Structure formats: C-alpha cells, structure tokens
Amino acid sequence: MPATRTDSSRRDLAAALLFAVLSVALYFLPTGFEGALQDTRSERVRATVLETDDSDVLRHGIVKTGDQHLLLRIENGRFQGEVVTSNNPLLGMMDRDTLFEEGDSAFVTLTLSPDEERIVNAAPESHYRLDLELLLLGLFAGALLLFGGLTGAKALLSFLFAALMLWRVLVPLLLKGWDPVWLALGVVAVMTAAIIFLVGGVNRKGLTAFLGAFLGILTSAALAVFFTGEFAISGAVMPFSEPLLYAGFAHLDLSRIYMAAVFLAASGAVMDLAMDVSASLHEVVCKKPDISFTEALKSGISVGRAVVGTMTTTLLLAYSGGFLTLLMAFMAKGVPLANFFNVVYVAAEILKTLVGSFGLVMVAPFTALIGAWIFTRRPECLPGEAEQP
Q1: Among residues 16, 277, 269, which one has the least CA distance to residue 150?
Q2: Which residues lie across from 121 on neighbouring strands?
C-alpha cells in the first residue's frame, strides 16, 4: 500500500517528539563532573561597579598590571542589594585581564563564610554577559521561528539537541578517557541524524542526505587520523590543552582529540551540502520518473559541482577568521612564506581546512550515488516528500 502524506507527517512528528524527549533527558543527564568545583562555599552573581580606584594600576604602554580597587553593588542572589569592596588583580595579560569602569556590570564570584551567612571575598571575573547571550539566543530563536515556521521550530530543536550532545555527552566522555575519534564519530552520527531527519523529514531525501553526509564525515575522519600523524601535529596547539593536562587529566590523548576536532568542525557544512544534493536530485527524479540511474547520478553530481565550490570557500573563511591576528603578526614581521606555512599552528589550521574541504568535496558524489540508487528504484514522488526542507 503506497505511503500517504499522513504517514509522512506522523513519522516527522514522531521524530520531533523523540528528539525533544532526548533533549530533555540530555539536559538532566549527569556528567559525573557536577562535584568538580572545589570551593562549594561560593556564589556567582551579577554586580554593578559603583566606584573604581586605579591608583595602584601600573601602565607599561598598552599593558596594565597591579590592582584595581572596586566598590560593587550585588544585583541578584541571596545578598542582593549589598555593597562590597573588591580587588581586581591585573596580570598584564590582555586576553585575561578586565579593567572595569564605573557603571559596568560585572560577573562576580562571592566566597562565603563557613556558615554561608557572610561574604568573605568578592572576586570580579569579567564583564557580565549572560543576559546579552540569552537575549541574542532569544533573537535567534525568534527569527528562526518567524521565518522558518514549523521547519524553523524543528531546526531550533536540532540546534538545541546538538548543543546538548556536545556538552552533556562528548565533553564529559572525552574527559573520562574515551577514544576521541570513535566517540566523536558516534556523536556526529547521532547529531547528523537529528538535524537531517528533523529538518528534512523522515523520508528518502533524509536517508540519502544522512548516508551521504556520514560517508563524507568518515572520509574526513580517516584523513584527519592519517595526516595528523604525518604532519607531526600535537593536540597542544588547541587552546587550553596544556592547562587541562596540568589540572589532573594527563591521561588525555591530545592528538586524538585534535583529530576528532578536525572532522567535527566540518560536519555542519557536510550536512548542508548532502541535503542540497539529496533534495535537488529527488526533485529531478520526481519531475522525470523515467530517468535512468546513470542520468540521475549525473544530475546529482552536477548539482554537487555547483555548490561545492562556495562551500569549501566557506570553510576556508571560517577557519582563517580564527587565526587572523596570527596572519597579521607574521606579515608584520616579514616572515617568509616557507617559515609561515611550516609553523605548527599554521600547519594545524591548514590540515583542518584541507581535510574538512576534502570531506566536503567527497560528500557530493557519495550523496549523488546513494540518491540515484534510492530514488530510481521507486521514482514516483511520495506524499510528504515533495516539499523542500
């Protein structure tokens, strides 16, 4: 009996409910690191800077060291309304130091007395940004729902599910010593299924896009494992990797974590391209049901060629934006290109860009091949499959 639009809608609704339930479960899933905070007699609050005293701040050009003295009013929590004095030490590290001004909103850690009834110390960490982050997230969700409608709602659910998978599954298990490459492959597979089937629907288009995307990611993973060893790149090039080892996680294999990061970073673009090829090829077969496997394959590859060029450039721009100041520093010093490209930080980004792009290039023929086989076996356009994702 042929599938009906109602059957397709029910499958899509079931998938949405499944991933919604999984998202809630992930939110409450214990990571095993809930008790990692050493000082439990503390509270994190927002405070307003009432006064600043820079008399003990020493300036050495653009670098500032010494101590900035602050008068703070606590704006939330049990001690809301209290005014406390605080000391803001400056270490001369521009990426970590924060020099406050009167009226600023600060994120402050309060150290409490043993009975937790009195503030012993107030340490300003940085400017308070949580409210703005929530505002930005709300604007993003609102825009997605406004312009995307039901598809936007499913895209938002896939976004939240992916974020929870990374924070509640991938990161804790990496810290516990699970193999980074195999773990990341499993996590990416689940996230790919969630994103593609939620947005594209539980149908042949979604299946084709999922299989094509995962084969592309698998290609990137294999290349990342091989070339990371050949390039002799240590995972220590990643930010905060060494402090992580010194914090009691010396068992971590940073090189394997770097390999996982390479194909994880490219997976989003791979999914996008796979869905583009799958949806376009499905539309071709729907419009021409008598198309042969070879013709469908050629059409899919043609679509892939049209979009793969801009997608690989997208990866290049995304990665290069992360080390723009490094490029500027080497150019300012007149470092020869041979020296520049041989620096481990640059080589690591080149490997990440080219391996990710290689997987992106391969996903187009993979998806075209799978789609041509799946769609031409039953060329009629089934109800619920005609809509573009």
Answers
A1: 16
A2: 111
